[in-house]
Every structure is written in C-alpha cells, then in structure tokens.
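The aim of this short unit is practical: by the end, you should be able to scan a pair of folded records and say something sensible about each. We start with the first protein, listed as its amino acid sequence and then its structure tokens.
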Amino acid sequence: MIDFGRFYQQIATGPLSHWLDTLPAQISAWKKEQLHGGFKSWEKMLDNLPNMTPSHLDLKNSVTASRDPALTSGETRRLNNILEQFKPWRKGPFSLYGVNIDTEWRSDWKWDRVLPHISPLKDRLVLDVGCGSGYHMWRMLGEGASFVVGIDPTQLFLCQFEAVRKLLGDDQRAHLLPLGIEQLPALNAFDTVFSMGVLYHRRSPLDHLWQLRNQLASEGELILESLVIEGDEFQCLIPGERYAQMRNVYFIPSAKMLKVWLEKCGFIDVRIVDQAVTSTEEQRRTEWMKTESLAEFLDPTDPSKTIEGYPAPLRAVLVARKP
C-alpha cells in the first residue's frame, strides 16, 4: 500500500507545512474516487518487489544501483519480471541491480541540456511538475537537492516511482504525489520549480505559468522546457486534433513568444538557454515501451514534419526568476 503519511510528517514543520491544510483531504478523495483500474495489480507488484539497499548508488551521472555481492541470475530474472509489470516505461533510463530499463525517452539527454544553465540545486527545495516516473527527481537529488516533490496525476508513473524508490534503499528525500498543478495551493515555498513537457498540454498556458510562479519562493528559479516552433515573438502554432499523434496539444509558441509570456506573468531575468530538435534516437520504441514512438509520428517522406504536416518537435529550455 502506497503511504503518504511519511511525507505529511516530513512537511509538518518548515515552508510546506500549510500544505497540510488541503493535501490529506485531496489524497483521501483520490484513493476513494479516482483509482485506475490497474492500480490494485500495480500495488500488488510493488508488494512483491524486494526492499533493496544498494552497495553502490549513482544519482549524479545516471540512476544506477548495484549491490555486493551481485544478484544471482535467478534474482535478476525475478526483479526483471516484476519491473516489466509496470510497462510502458517512458522516462529514464534506470540501471537497477543488473536490470537495465531502456525507456522510450533518453531523459538523461534532456537533463544534460538543462543542467549547465540552472542555479546549483545543492540544499534546495525542489518541485518537479509533470514528473512522469520521477527520473529527473533522482538526478536532482544527485545534484544535492535537499528535498524533491514531484506531481503527476498518472498513476502508473506513481507506481514506477515507488518501485524505483524501493530499490534505492527507500529514499525519503523524494516524493511523488498523484496531483496536477491546478490542485496545488499557492505554496510560495520552492527554491526551484521544473515544468518540463507540460505547457503545451495546458488549455490556458498563462494560467500554468502563474501556477508555477505561485509555487516559488521569492528569488526562486523556474526551469521551463516545452515544445516550440521557429519564429519571432508573434509566432504560435495552434494544432488541430493531434500534433505528432498527441491529443490535447493546445499552444506551441516560439521560444521568443514564450519568453514574452513569462515576462507577462511577472518573471524576471528570463533567458532562452537551449533549443534542440527531438531526434528518433532520443525518443524511440524499446523493449520497455513497445508501442509507436516518434519515428511513427513523423512524415515518412519528410522527417522535418509531423505526420499531420506540422513542424517536427523542437524543444526549448527557458530559465526565469521570481522577484
């Protein structure tokens, strides 16, 4: 059974304490009303997963755990079989006691693009919005963050995160909550807030930026990563029903327009620090995510376009500060 009680205890004192006015009731309602049909079986798989304490743990360069002595071939096979029950694995990769989870996304590549441009995370309180399986949360701890909170309403991602946590020695410095950003009160508490791969799924992108601002402490830093198009500050794509086969893609601005949006929402020192085309090496189908991926979402005769005829995915990273 996934227990949020330890998280409540950890935030009972400190800058997040007032979150307890609303959070336990939200989690209680979620447990009663909103559980996915597969959630019980995922929880059962979590119970079957052994608690492991790594002899060697690397969160700085990867998410890698190993043990001395190494697992036997039978133990490795059993661990692999349990982790396969949480497919599809989209964000990673993870290397856990000889089981290498080759995820759809090389999220480490995104991290390598982001990290050189942000303030050091050492001793920071961090929020990761739309965190997926929590891969980047572990990398944030690897950079010295003191405490990391991730939010993502997708329940499979919560179970993947809890599985990894169990294999990393039950690390309590990171927690994932099954919530969306719109469910958070204005906490005004985090030193750093990440929103990566979320903005284009929001019907009201400026509201999303205001919600992110409301989570930051004064002088806190926002790292925003999103789909963009080429163009000046007046360019924005509003796709039809699908973009690269994704539903619920509402606005894809240029990076320059996104900078204007951030300034409109009261952020300062806004910088466009990176822009990169998403390659079929960075997002692809694997043994751990066997359904269609980016290669199938691009025009087979012109990979500079999506299958719908829009510009192929281009992603920008912007860094900004709350005054």
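Turning to the second protein, read its sequence before its tokens, just as you did above.
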Amino acid sequence: MSSSWPTLIVLLIILAGMAGAWFFTPKGPQQTLIRTACMLTLACCYLMWAVTYLAQVHPLERPRRLLVEE
C-alpha cells in the first residue's frame, strides 16, 4: 500500500511557491493579474499531478492479466 506522503510533500512545495508568488510579485498596475496567474498555474499543475498520481496508486479497477493464446 502506498503512502500519502508524496501528495502532502508536493502540496507543501506548491503552497510555498504560492506564498512566494504572493510576496515577490513586482509592484505595479498588473500586480494582481500576475499574482493570480502564477497562483492559478501552480494550483492547476498540482491538481493535474495529484489526480494522475493518485489514479495510478489507487486504480478504479484491478489490473487483469491477459491470456494470450498461440
């Protein structure tokens, strides 16, 4: 049985990246747009990775062995 640690560790990394995007976005008229785009990109990438990872760790169906007849 696989652990949930990789999912949580990557989540912490993504949250740290979001905090970095929040605090280190340059000041200016487009600050909110840049900040939102960076944080939304990180969130979408994490969700895509997590769904793919968890689907491989816990598949909906058990793998079946195919019988090949010669």
